[in-house]
């Protein structure tokens, strides 16, 4: 029997620095000149943070982001300073627990736009299309089929909301919010990054259906921040599962969503704890996407 690694729901007991932000998964600690991001194993679905945490989920998200930031740093600088827990010294009381889930970053001014690129018409984009034949105000041809690939990927931004859902907006509204010059740079950077990663994934039998980016400014220059091309920020499909007009099983927390939708949960209250089998299957799913994308096992 394989022993599951310890799941981490929070790092507050292991980090001797002020906690300045706690998201659904990430925690941000102030180190003075830099931030420390710790990626926990918390998992969310349908706007609820669920119990229990999923072992290795945070390790995968952080390790994959570090991998992709390294792969793309010549295309666009990012916020990473290092991911070495040993360099944190006595700021971390349990370095072995946190060794794969820490990222020390430069402090950037966050641009409050979520930059979404869609290569295939699925998910929320498909739902918009069914209603209006458009996505974020972009008119699309009649008769497109669910999961169909666009001739060229499309850029569909959202205005970030720290409380509640991000709001899909037309590109013209993004120009009003951040200025035409910056909007164009963010759009072009996002499309360039998507095209690169889509090609990389395709060589490994994976389809990158869509993804989202966050950008920041340091000394007026745009850099990548947050996370990139992880199962929490991107939709990955195995090429063997690709099909039109169906719900494709994505390579992320799909076992959790499938389980919840198969219960009598009312979706208006905190669901019961996830069964062990669902947690185990989800943990394995995250480790598998890491192996296929990075070419190595999670250490």
Structure report:
The protein is an alpha+beta fold. It is 29% helix and 26% strand. Strands 8, 9, 12, 13, 14, 15, 16 and 17 form an eight-stranded antiparallel sheet that branches. The chain has a five-stranded antiparallel sheet with strand order 1-2-3-7-6. It has a two-stranded antiparallel sheet with strand order 4-5. Helix 4 crosses helix 5. The protein is globular, with a radius of gyration of 19 Å. The model has no long low-confidence stretch (mean pLDDT 95).
Characteristics:
299 residues; alpha+beta; eight-stranded antiparallel sheet; five-stranded antiparallel sheet; 29% helix; globular
Per DSSP, the total helix count is 7
Main sheet characteristics: 8 strands, antiparallel
Element order: H for helix, E for strand: EEEEEHEHEEEHEEEEEHHEEEHH
Mean pLDDT, nearest integer?
95
Radius of gyration: 19 Å
Count of β-strands: 17
Fraction of residues in β-strands = 25-35%
Percentage of residues in helical conformation: 25-40%
The assigned structural class equals alpha+beta
Query: How far apart are the first and last residues' alpha carbons, in Å?
Result: 19 Å
| Outline type | globular
Would you identify the regions where 5 or more consecutive residues have pLDDT less than 50?
A: none
In short:
The protein has 299 residues and is α+β, with helices and mostly antiparallel strands. The protein has helices at residues 57-72, 95-98, 123-132, 171-178, 180-202, 254-261, 276-294, and strands at 19-22, 26-30, 34-39, 43-45, 48-50, 80-82, 102-106, 109-110, 113-120, 134-135, 138-139, 149-155, 158-159, 167-168, 206-218, 221-225, 234-238. The strands form four sheets. Strands 8, 9, 12, 13, 14, 15, 16 and 17 form an eight-stranded antiparallel sheet that branches. Strands 1-2-3-7-6 form a five-stranded antiparallel sheet. The protein has a two-stranded antiparallel sheet with strand order 4-5.
């Amino acid at each position: 029997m394989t022993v599951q690694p310890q799941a981490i729901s929070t790092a507050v007991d292991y980090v001797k620095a002020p906690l300045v932000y706690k998201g659904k998964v990430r925690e941000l600690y102030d180190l003075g000149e830099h931030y420390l991001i710790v990626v926990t194993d918390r998992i969310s679905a349908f706007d609820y943070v669920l119990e229990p945490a999923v072992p290795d989920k945070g390790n995968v998200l952080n390790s994959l982001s570090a991998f992709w930031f390294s792969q793309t740093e010549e295309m666009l600088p990012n916020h990473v300073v290092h991911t070495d827990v040993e360099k944190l010294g006595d700021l971390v009381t349990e370095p072995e627990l946190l060794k794969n889930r820490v990222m020390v970053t430069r402090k950037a001014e966050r641009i409050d736009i979520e930059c979404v690129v869609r290569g295939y018409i699925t998910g929320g984009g498909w739902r918009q299309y069914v209603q209006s034949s458009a996505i974020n105000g972009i008119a699309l041809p009649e008769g497109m089929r669910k999961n169909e690939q666009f001739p060229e990927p499309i850029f569909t931004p959202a205005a970030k909301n720290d409380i509640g859902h991000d709001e899909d907006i037309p590109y013209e509204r993004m120009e009003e919010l951040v200025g035409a010059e910056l909007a164009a740079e963010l759009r072009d950077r996002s499309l360039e990054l998507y095209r690169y990663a889509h090609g990389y994934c395709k060589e490994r039998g994976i389809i990158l259906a869509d993804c989202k980016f966050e950008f920041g400014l340091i000394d007026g220059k745009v850099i990548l921040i947050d996370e990139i091309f992880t199962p929490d920020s991107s939709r990955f499909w195995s090429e063997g599962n690709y099909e039109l007009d169906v719900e494709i099983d994505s390579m992320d927390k799909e076992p959790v969503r499938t389980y919840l939708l198969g219960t009598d949960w009312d979706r208006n209250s905190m669901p019961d704890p996830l069964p062990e089998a669902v947690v185990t299957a989800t943990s394995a799913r995250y480790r598998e996407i890491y192996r296929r994308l990075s070419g190595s096992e999670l250490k």
